[in-house]
């Protein structure tokens, strides 16, 4: 099964970044999901939805090589990443992936600047005029001038914004985001999704897990983990749940 699309912002001609084929995950005798099939292309934002405990985070962890599926294949640009050895896993994480996970994976004792320098790495992608430098990325997330502060002195929301700035300077090919707006108000939710959309417009494939219908509706495609025998469908065709009567 492949992802259906709304037609914006990318077209069918975009390159497929991730292909998931017949993936399953079990913990002991408990099957979390099976028959999971979807693709994610350059420029596409895919929302993983499903009730709490349905396995959205576990699926993201499999895509990010933090966990292994029980069966099935995950291809990145044609290569089965579930068969990667340690070296290729390390390079895949460093060169390809951007994480926006609940604990942000920042270096707590280092400064904001140092965290972003680590993300840029030795290849100095700052020379690419389309990729923002550290000062511009911090400005973009509302943390201008905070580069010398240590991560552990920042609030949870500020740390999340550093993680967003990290994505901007890193410009990964694939962004995995687990409940990126879980604890945020509407204004900050929109700001986070704007940045993820900016990355997708620049060619990143974005896969995010969310319980928020507003976030889901801003994605191009939706995959319902708890109904994983269904194909992905365009976000706009997913009906919002009827509010419970008061
Ligand atoms: N290492 C593990 N061993 C056993 N069970 C696990 C393990 N990791 C996750 N699980 C179980 O898998 C189920 C799915 O967890 P997961 O966090 O992927 O769900 P989720 O859909 O992301 O939930 P939420 O929306 O609440 O964040 C849970 O019941 C969890 O306890």
TrEMBL record:
**All residue ranges annotated as the ABC transporter domain in the record:** 18-246
Q: Which domain of life is it from?
A: Bacteria
MF terms (GO), sorted A to Z: ATP binding
Give the matching Pfam families: ABC_tran
Q: Which UniProt keywords apply?
A: ATP-binding, Nucleotide-binding
Give the matching PANTHER family. Answer: ABC TRANSPORTER ABCH.1 (PTHR24220:SF86), IMPORT ATP-BINDING PROTEIN (PTHR24220)
Q: What is this protein called in UniProt?
A: ABC transporter ATP-binding protein
Q: Which species is this UniProt entry from? A: Streptomyces tibetensis
